[in-house]
């Protein structure tokens, strides 16, 4: 019986490679679906970000396995085609340069674990929270539009993974559930910093106090486990000269990721109130 089926496949209208390719792809897709459903059923309380991460990772692995499987099945035909296309290989490389760079950037990201789904990153001036990653590009929910506004704008922005080869990646939540956040506030040069900084410092310490002890423990664990040189958890405010018109107040504090925007906005509100009072008193 199996010999008859084999002869039919070999001599029939459907080539064996085509049938094997279809069966392999269907099998991989079914296996992926079964694994995902089983994992989700075993972990019903899994957060949506974690589910999304599993879906993205499984999809990328499925694509890689499918490509390798097709390469094995069609190896003989690919070898024949490669020999016949040797004369135009240089032209193909030039035509697919951007594609190769995107795949190289994707390989670099995966090997160095630069970022994953749910991370806050900035690449070449593009800021956002990663929602999808594939072999060619990365999709983010945009943050902005102003640099001091860290809220999601509701728009998506994508960039080719080739940017990872030529631009640095800034990742906000490298310390996990906590973040070291820094912002610069430009101040007119004629406003006395001694009338501004103490009020901001007092408010900042009050806002950060509930989290400092937990953050210090977390930073010690990160330093022990990953051998990172972690920054201090205590909030700090420094004054930096800029030009003859403004100077900058640099605010640095540690907080949970979901609280940093709330603390930042409270500081900005307090600064605006102080600035308004100083300007009115001067006038």
Order of helices and strands: HHHHHHEEEEEEHEEH
* Main sheet overview: 5 strands, antiparallel
The helix content, as a percent range, equals 40-55%
Number of helices: 8
What would you call the shape?
elongated
Low-confidence stretches: none
Tell me about this structure.
- With 283 residues, this protein is an alpha+beta fold.
- Helices cover 53% and strands 21% of the residues.
- The strands form two sheets. It has a five-stranded antiparallel β-sheet with strand order 4-3-2-1-5. The chain has a three-stranded antiparallel β-sheet with strand order 6-8-7.
- A hairpin with a 2-residue loop joins β1 and β2.
Search tags:
283 residues; alpha+beta; 5-stranded antiparallel β-sheet; 3-stranded antiparallel β-sheet; 8 strands; elongated; mechanosensitive monoatomic ion channel activity; Sm-like integral membrane protein
